Amino acid sequence: MKNFQSIVMIILFSITSVFSQEKEILEKYGITVNTLQEGLKEGEQAYTFKAKDQNGETFDLKKALKKGPVVLNFYRGSWCPYCTKHLKNVQDSLSLIEATGATFIAVTPELADGNLELAKKKGFTFDIVEDSKLEIMNGYKVTFDVNEGYQEMLKKYERDLTKINAIKRATLPIPATYIISQDGTILKRHYDPNYKVRMSVKETLSVLENI
Protein backbone atom coordinates (compact mmCIF):
# COMPACT_ATOMS: atom_id res chain seq x y z
CA MET A 1 0.00 0.00 0.00
CA LYS A 2 2.82 2.36 0.92
CA ASN A 3 4.55 1.60 -2.39
CA PHE A 4 1.36 2.41 -4.28
CA GLN A 5 0.98 5.71 -2.45
CA SER A 6 4.60 6.56 -3.17
CA ILE A 7 4.10 5.89 -6.90
CA VAL A 8 0.98 8.07 -6.96
CA MET A 9 2.86 10.89 -5.22
CA ILE A 10 5.72 10.64 -7.70
CA ILE A 11 3.31 10.79 -10.66
CA LEU A 12 1.46 13.77 -9.19
CA PHE A 13 4.73 15.56 -8.50
CA SER A 14 5.90 14.93 -12.07
CA ILE A 15 2.65 16.26 -13.55
CA THR A 16 2.79 19.35 -11.32
CA SER A 17 6.43 19.92 -12.24
CA VAL A 18 5.77 19.63 -16.00
CA PHE A 19 2.78 21.99 -15.77
CA SER A 20 4.83 24.48 -13.78
CA GLN A 21 7.62 24.41 -16.37
CA GLU A 22 5.13 24.79 -19.25
CA LYS A 23 3.43 27.70 -17.50
CA GLU A 24 6.77 29.41 -16.98
CA ILE A 25 7.63 29.05 -20.67
CA LEU A 26 4.25 30.37 -21.80
CA GLU A 27 4.54 33.35 -19.49
CA LYS A 28 7.97 34.10 -20.98
CA TYR A 29 6.22 34.45 -24.34
CA GLY A 30 3.88 37.03 -22.82
CA ILE A 31 0.91 34.71 -22.38
CA THR A 32 -1.55 34.91 -19.50
CA VAL A 33 -1.91 31.14 -19.27
CA ASN A 34 -5.57 30.85 -18.24
CA THR A 35 -6.63 32.95 -21.26
CA LEU A 36 -4.81 30.89 -23.89
CA GLN A 37 -7.06 29.23 -26.47
CA GLU A 38 -6.03 25.90 -28.01
CA GLY A 39 -6.73 26.71 -31.66
CA LEU A 40 -8.93 24.96 -34.20
CA LYS A 41 -7.57 21.55 -35.16
CA GLU A 42 -6.84 19.85 -38.47
CA GLY A 43 -9.98 18.24 -39.86
CA GLU A 44 -12.28 20.85 -38.31
CA GLN A 45 -14.25 23.38 -40.33
CA ALA A 46 -12.66 26.77 -40.76
CA TYR A 47 -14.35 29.84 -39.32
CA THR A 48 -15.56 31.96 -42.26
CA PHE A 49 -15.46 35.74 -42.11
CA LYS A 50 -15.52 39.05 -43.94
CA ALA A 51 -13.11 41.82 -42.97
CA LYS A 52 -11.54 45.01 -44.33
CA ASP A 53 -8.03 44.78 -45.74
CA GLN A 54 -5.29 47.43 -45.65
CA ASN A 55 -6.83 49.15 -48.68
CA GLY A 56 -10.32 49.35 -47.20
CA GLU A 57 -11.64 46.55 -49.42
CA THR A 58 -13.59 43.57 -48.08
CA PHE A 59 -11.94 40.18 -47.93
CA ASP A 60 -14.52 37.37 -47.92
CA LEU A 61 -13.14 33.94 -47.01
CA LYS A 62 -16.07 32.09 -48.59
CA LYS A 63 -15.46 33.85 -51.91
CA ALA A 64 -11.73 33.21 -51.72
CA LEU A 65 -12.33 29.48 -51.16
CA LYS A 66 -14.39 29.29 -54.34
CA LYS A 67 -11.18 30.13 -56.23
CA GLY A 68 -8.92 27.70 -54.40
CA PRO A 69 -7.39 26.84 -51.02
CA VAL A 70 -6.53 29.60 -48.58
CA VAL A 71 -3.46 30.05 -46.41
CA LEU A 72 -4.55 32.02 -43.36
CA ASN A 73 -1.84 33.51 -41.18
CA PHE A 74 -2.23 35.28 -37.85
CA TYR A 75 0.47 37.74 -36.89
CA ARG A 76 0.94 39.89 -33.83
CA GLY A 77 1.58 43.24 -35.51
CA SER A 78 3.95 45.33 -37.60
CA TRP A 79 6.04 45.89 -34.45
CA CYS A 80 7.00 42.19 -34.27
CA PRO A 81 10.25 41.48 -36.19
CA TYR A 82 9.56 37.73 -36.28
CA CYS A 83 6.19 38.40 -37.90
CA THR A 84 7.54 40.79 -40.51
CA LYS A 85 10.40 38.41 -41.34
CA HIS A 86 7.97 35.54 -41.86
CA LEU A 87 5.66 37.68 -44.00
CA LYS A 88 8.65 38.85 -46.06
CA ASN A 89 9.51 35.20 -46.74
CA VAL A 90 5.91 34.64 -47.85
CA GLN A 91 6.02 37.67 -50.13
CA ASP A 92 9.26 36.45 -51.71
CA SER A 93 7.52 33.17 -52.62
CA LEU A 94 4.01 34.52 -53.12
CA SER A 95 4.03 33.77 -56.85
CA LEU A 96 4.74 30.09 -56.05
CA ILE A 97 1.91 29.99 -53.53
CA GLU A 98 -0.52 31.61 -55.94
CA ALA A 99 0.62 29.26 -58.74
CA THR A 100 -1.01 26.42 -56.78
CA GLY A 101 -4.32 28.31 -56.98
CA ALA A 102 -4.12 29.37 -53.34
CA THR A 103 -4.75 32.74 -51.70
CA PHE A 104 -2.62 34.02 -48.83
CA ILE A 105 -4.30 36.21 -46.21
CA ALA A 106 -2.78 37.74 -43.06
CA VAL A 107 -4.86 38.65 -39.99
CA THR A 108 -3.80 40.97 -37.17
CA PRO A 109 -5.42 42.83 -34.27
CA GLU A 110 -3.44 45.93 -35.23
CA LEU A 111 -5.12 49.06 -36.59
CA ALA A 112 -5.58 49.21 -40.37
CA ASP A 113 -3.26 52.23 -40.67
CA GLY A 114 -0.41 50.14 -39.32
CA ASN A 115 -1.22 47.38 -41.81
CA LEU A 116 -1.18 49.77 -44.76
CA GLU A 117 2.09 51.32 -43.62
CA LEU A 118 3.65 47.87 -43.22
CA ALA A 119 2.45 46.73 -46.66
CA LYS A 120 3.90 49.82 -48.33
CA LYS A 121 7.17 49.67 -46.43
CA LYS A 122 7.77 45.95 -47.07
CA GLY A 123 6.14 45.71 -50.49
CA PHE A 124 3.50 43.21 -49.38
CA THR A 125 0.92 42.58 -52.09
CA PHE A 126 -1.27 40.08 -50.22
CA ASP A 127 -4.30 41.14 -48.18
CA ILE A 128 -3.82 42.09 -44.54
CA VAL A 129 -7.03 42.39 -42.57
CA GLU A 130 -7.69 44.13 -39.28
CA ASP A 131 -9.45 41.90 -36.77
CA SER A 132 -10.96 44.91 -35.03
CA LYS A 133 -13.15 42.97 -32.57
CA LEU A 134 -11.06 39.79 -32.33
CA GLU A 135 -13.86 37.88 -34.06
CA ILE A 136 -11.49 36.05 -36.42
CA MET A 137 -8.92 35.31 -33.74
CA ASN A 138 -11.62 33.96 -31.45
CA GLY A 139 -13.22 32.07 -34.36
CA TYR A 140 -9.96 30.15 -34.81
CA LYS A 141 -9.36 30.01 -31.03
CA VAL A 142 -5.87 31.49 -31.18
CA THR A 143 -6.38 34.37 -28.74
CA PHE A 144 -4.64 35.16 -25.47
CA ASP A 145 -4.29 38.14 -23.14
CA VAL A 146 -0.79 39.53 -22.80
CA ASN A 147 0.62 39.43 -19.28
CA GLU A 148 1.66 42.63 -17.52
CA GLY A 149 5.37 41.87 -17.60
CA TYR A 150 5.41 41.51 -21.38
CA GLN A 151 3.25 44.60 -21.80
CA GLU A 152 5.69 46.66 -19.76
CA MET A 153 8.60 45.32 -21.80
CA LEU A 154 6.89 46.37 -25.05
CA LYS A 155 6.12 49.83 -23.69
CA LYS A 156 9.84 50.43 -23.24
CA TYR A 157 10.04 50.20 -27.02
CA GLU A 158 6.99 52.48 -27.44
CA ARG A 159 4.74 49.56 -28.33
CA ASP A 160 1.63 49.95 -26.21
CA LEU A 161 -0.80 47.24 -27.35
CA THR A 162 -3.75 49.11 -25.85
CA LYS A 163 -3.05 51.85 -28.41
CA ILE A 164 -1.74 49.81 -31.35
CA ASN A 165 -4.57 47.26 -31.37
CA ALA A 166 -7.90 48.25 -32.89
CA ILE A 167 -9.84 46.93 -29.91
CA LYS A 168 -7.62 48.88 -27.47
CA ARG A 169 -6.78 45.76 -25.48
CA ALA A 170 -3.52 43.93 -24.88
CA THR A 171 -4.70 40.80 -26.65
CA LEU A 172 -2.76 38.92 -29.33
CA PRO A 173 -3.06 35.80 -31.46
CA ILE A 174 -0.76 32.83 -31.38
CA PRO A 175 1.09 33.40 -34.69
CA ALA A 176 -0.65 30.41 -36.25
CA THR A 177 -1.03 29.39 -39.89
CA TYR A 178 -4.02 27.46 -41.26
CA ILE A 179 -4.21 25.89 -44.71
CA ILE A 180 -7.86 25.54 -45.66
CA SER A 181 -9.26 23.40 -48.49
CA GLN A 182 -12.00 24.63 -50.80
CA ASP A 183 -14.67 22.77 -48.82
CA GLY A 184 -13.64 24.71 -45.71
CA THR A 185 -11.75 21.89 -43.99
CA ILE A 186 -8.54 22.72 -42.15
CA LEU A 187 -5.90 20.56 -43.85
CA LYS A 188 -2.86 21.74 -41.95
CA ARG A 189 -2.13 24.05 -39.07
CA HIS A 190 0.94 25.44 -37.41
CA TYR A 191 0.17 26.49 -33.84
CA ASP A 192 3.08 27.26 -31.53
CA PRO A 193 3.07 29.66 -28.57
CA ASN A 194 6.75 30.28 -29.32
CA TYR A 195 6.38 33.31 -31.61
CA LYS A 196 9.85 32.71 -33.03
CA VAL A 197 8.70 29.52 -34.78
CA ARG A 198 6.51 29.69 -37.92
CA MET A 199 5.28 27.42 -40.70
CA SER A 200 7.93 27.62 -43.41
CA VAL A 201 7.08 28.54 -46.98
CA LYS A 202 8.54 25.18 -48.02
CA GLU A 203 6.06 23.30 -45.82
CA THR A 204 3.21 25.53 -46.99
CA LEU A 205 4.01 24.80 -50.62
CA SER A 206 4.36 21.07 -49.92
CA VAL A 207 0.81 20.95 -48.54
CA LEU A 208 -0.66 23.08 -51.33
CA GLU A 209 1.02 21.07 -54.07
CA ASN A 210 -0.45 17.85 -52.70
CA ILE A 211 -4.07 18.98 -52.41
UniProtKB/TrEMBL annotation:
Originating organism: Flammeovirga yaeyamensis
**Which GO terms are recorded in the biological process aspect for this UniProt protein?**
cell redox homeostasis; cellular response to oxidative stress
Instruction: Name the family.
Output: Belongs to the peroxiredoxin family. BCP/PrxQ subfamily.
Its keywords, alphabetically, are:
Antioxidant, Disulfide bond, Oxidoreductase, Peroxidase, Redox-active center
Gene Ontology CC terms: cytoplasm
What protein name does the entry list?
thioredoxin-dependent peroxiredoxin
The molecular function terms of the Gene Ontology recorded here are: thioredoxin peroxidase activity
- Domain Thioredoxin: residue ranges: 40-211
Gene3D superfamilies on file? Glutaredoxin (3.40.30.10)
**Per the UniProt record, which EC number(s) apply here?**
1.11.1.24
**What is the annotated role of this protein in its UniProt record?**
Thiol-specific peroxidase that catalyzes the reduction of hydrogen peroxide and organic hydroperoxides to water and alcohols, respectively. Plays a role in cell protection against oxidative stress by detoxifying peroxides and as sensor of hydrogen peroxide-mediated signaling events.
Reactions performed catalytically = a hydroperoxide + [thioredoxin]-dithiol = an alcohol + [thioredoxin]-disulfide + H2O
